[in-house]
Amino acid sequence: MNQAMFSQQPQDLVVVAGQPVTLPCTIPGYHGVVLWIKDGLALGVGRDLSGYPRYTVIGDHGSGEHHLRIQRVELMDDAVFECQAVQAAMRSRPARLTVLVPPEDPVISGGPVVSLRAGDPLNLTCHADNAKPAASIIWIRNGEVLNGAMYSKTLLRDGRRESTVSTLYLSPSNIETGQQIICKASNKAVPNGKETSVTIDIQHLPLVNLSVEPQPVLEGNLVKFHCSAKANPPVTLYRWAKGGSIIKEVSGDTYEVIVDHSFFTEPVSCEVTNPLGSTNISRNVDVYFGPRMAAEPQSLQVDLGSDAVFNCAWTGNPSLTIVWMKRGSGVVLSNENLLTLKSVRQEDAGKYVCRAVVPRVGAGEKEVSLTVNGPPTISSTQTQQALHGEKGQIKCFIRSTPPPDRIAWSWKETVLESGTSGRYTVETVTTEEGVISTLTMSNIVPADFQTIYNCTAWNSFGSDTEIIRLKEQESLPVAVIIGIAVGAFVALIVLMGTIGAFCCTRSQRNLKGVVSAKNDIRVEIVHKDHNAARENEEHTSMKQLMVTLIPLLPHVIFQG
Asked: Which segments constitute the Ig-like domain (predicted)?
């Protein structure tokens, strides 16, 4: 018997899982038993491989063909195979069958849409599992490979397959919403690779714009607020407020209202909400309105010689002008909120007006009083009249802040503050302008016209006095006659003046080219009355004397 020899032996093969493979084994002239050995273990005797349904021995047995056919190669087929001729004591060279396993379809965590908040970086993770050999992963965007990804491999329990994980980091500035990013995994089993993709969805708080129309606007007109917003996810709520107070009756993106001055200082806000949160935006309205009092000035009562400071603040739009003046005077004292009067005198007392003007819009004013604390001031007619035999009165008008503590009438050796003494009665009445003290005399006698009457008032700041004389009043018939005569004289003067003016007018019409060389010069001749001057000096001396003497006289006060 000729010695048997292998004409075909199995070779090392690489095959992708799932494909068929044939390991050749031919021993011409050998008719004995042939065994296939896998990793040192016999698969069966002869052509009986019933324990391995996918395994079949094929070929012409008579020609010595004993090929091993494997259907749908699996990972477990990754082994070393031998073909042995038992009776001939021959074995083939070992043949390594390498099984390649493609990775499972790659998966990007969080796909197919990956959402993130604006301003956050993007971290994408792609898995390519159960591959042999381990899969390689690349990232692609807009046809370009993205570099910088990190990789890791994990060997599975079977010791053959591996899983690959790739993590891609992108900064906020390097991503845009709507972009598509691809993860592509490949190994020798799938050289063209497998891929999956995700779409980037950048979510953000509402981006809000608040428009106000029209601007500027006059108080009392209609204004429309429109709140336009871009948001991802979409807007779920609009909320309006004015000056921090919620406007409950408005819920959409538009708010219409008749505006007043408050919209100038109290902004209108629109708050837009989506699932990520809220964005609030506020706008003031450029409302034109007339002056409105912001700080109301207060009336003042100050001591003589002190400073008086008034504060008056207005609001208005456009910018307003403030003017301080004293009532009855056209002199502007200040254009500021503050009016300061230095070292006030009694003549500074009175009404002061703070006036504000908004050009072409409106004006407003506020009046306050300045009261000056000081000694009383008496202003009375120094000569007053009465009829002989009738009841007569002398009045003394006193301005005093604070009010007078004491008012006294004195004549000869009598001092009377109130009540009645003989023919004399003193009554005091307080009015808005001041205090009026009246000395009433019943049955006027000639001596009353020769008497000097003194009215003196005191308060905590000092005193003032006035000397008053009583003059006999002429009887009514004489007065009437004089009145008629004076009236007739005045009428005559008026008539003559009218005739003279008429004549002058006619004369001027007949004179042409005559021009006055100078304006008329008015000359006033003053006759100085030396006797009157002497009386004024005596009057002043008498007042000073009475102020000194009255406090020293006993207080003769008669109560009615």
From this structure: 4-98, 103-199, 206-286, 291-371, 376-471
